[in-house]
Design brief:
Order of helices and strands: HHHEEEEEEEEEEEEEEEEEEEHH
Structural class: mainly beta
Shape: elongated
Strand content: over 45%
Radius of gyration: 26 Å
Oligomer: single chain
Number of helices: 5
Helix content: 10-25%
CATH topology: Porin
Largest sheet: 13 strands, antiparallel
């Protein structure tokens, strides 16, 4: 049975590690034309999406609109965790909903006639994952008690995570073909995460053994992010480079709730000698959220009626750090210390993309784009929510040891 528990624990860890809320950097695109070109415009952006891709291009845009609202009107998302709770037990969620975008507007100041300013608000990240596994079977669950028992399981993995950037961009030409620009953003991030495990069994003589495990945290974080860009523009050729600085944290705060209850232990049914109870709720916990240094480069060039765009961006790693560190508390019935740190870690990734625009006639253009969006979630990090410390007490381990085989068999 011990091997079965390890399978459950490790697969839950693997599943939650996918939720690291800032591990995908190229999911969102900004600006009308930039969206159609899959965001491969770091060296060729022609719309107000330049506030994100390369603010240096803002003062080189002669025909860009002074105000823009862009969004993907509808977005279909599918989350699938193969063998998420063991062999042949998958977790899947499909969702159709609205996607986020960009609001931006340009303006000038009379005492800085060569400069161009743009205010913008964009959704950098928006994620909502809600995975459930519910089952009820009759199976020989309790290792000591003879015969089959009724067994029910309800496991929930939930994540709501978003980040919005709002700020001012400034750009000024250095000469006819070259300009620089800076975007200054206030980044507001919110996360709510929940792992809930509810396992119950009823023996033939109506004896009940039950386990309830909950771990939930919620936080809000404010920080500042700067982007700087250099742009070159010629009639049939453009190029650019942009640098995004790591986030500077201003303020962050959240709460942590954890609970573990094991009830109904008895020598006639279980090898666990005692019930246990652990519960803790802490508020006003400082919350820190880090982001990587990144450098993007790109180019665009015209060949007859075709306009080609190529871009790539390198993201540095973020070493393992603590997002929230609640105070260690002592389990009420066990007297053992319980640690519930929330940690994160991001690896180095490189994303690249290309897009082209073909002029069909004076009124219509054809666009196509492709880009990668590799995950920066570190394979060496157990999980964003660090379940190893939050779930692996002796009593919990025992009950999960007999629970998992039932879940696996009932699903095959």
């Amino acid at each position: 049975m011990k091997g079965s528990f390890q399978i459950l624990f490790l697969t839950i860890v693997a599943a939650t590690s996918l939720y690291s809320q800032n591990s995908h950097y190229w999911t969102q695109q900004y600006g009308n034309e930039s969206l159609l070109l899959s965001g491969a415009v770091a060296g060729s952006v022609t719309d107000l999406g330049a506030v994100y891709y390369n603010p240096g291009f803002l003062s080189l845009q002669d025909s860009a609109p002074s105000f823009v609202v862009t969004a993907k009107v509808m977005q279909y998302t599918r989350v699938h965790l193969e063998n998420g709770l063991g062999k042949n037990v998958n977790l899947e969620k499909n969702n159709l909903g609205n996607a986020s975008g960009l609001i931006a507007g340009g303006f000038t100041l009379g005492f800085m006639p060569k400069s161009k300013f743009v205010y913008s608000v964009l959704t950098r990240r928006s994620q909502n994952i809600d995975l459930d596994y519910i089952n009820h079977v009759n199976f020989d669950v309790l290792p000591i008690s003879p015969g089959s028992e009724d067994f029910s399981s309800d496991i929930t993995l939930y994540l709501e995570s978003s980040e919005t950037w709002g700020g001012i961009s400034w750009s000024i030409p250095l000469n006819e073909h070259m300009s620089i620009g800076i975007s200054n953003y206030m980044a507001i991030a919110y996360t709510n995460s929940l792992l809930s495990i509810d396992l119950n069994t009823l023996a033939a003589d109506n004896h009940v053994v039950a386990l309830n495990r909950i771990r939930q945290y919620d936080y809000l974080n404010f920080g500042m992010i700067w982007k700087a860009g250099l742009a070159l523009k010629y009639p049939k050729f453009t190029a650019g480079i942009a640098i995004t600085a790591p986030k500077i944290n201003f303020w962050g705060q959240g709460y942590m709730y954890t609970q573990g209850i094991l009830a109904g232990t008895d020598s006639n049914y279980t090898t666990q000698p005692e019930d246990y109870y652990e519960s803790d709720y802490q508020q006003d916990i400082p919350a820190v959220l880090k982001s990587p240094l990144s450098v993007s480069i790109g180019t665009g060039f015209q060949i007859k009626k075709f306009r080609f765009n190529i871009s790539a961006e390198w993201f540095d790693n973020v070493s393992k750090y603590t997002v929230m560190e609640p105070a260690v508390f002592m389990g009420q019935s066990t007297g053992e210390p319980v640690i519930n740190n929330v940690v994160d870690e991001l690896k180095t990734v490189v994303n690249a993309g290309f897009g082209f625009k073909y002029e069909l006639n004076q009124n219509y253009d054809l666009y196509m784009g492709f880009s990668t969006d590799f995950s920066a979630a570190s394979p060496s990090s157990k999980t964003f929510t660090d379940l190893a410390e939050g779930l692996c007490s002796n009593s919990t381990s025992y009950l999960l040891r007999w629970a998992l085989p039932t879940i696996m068999v009932s699903a095959t």
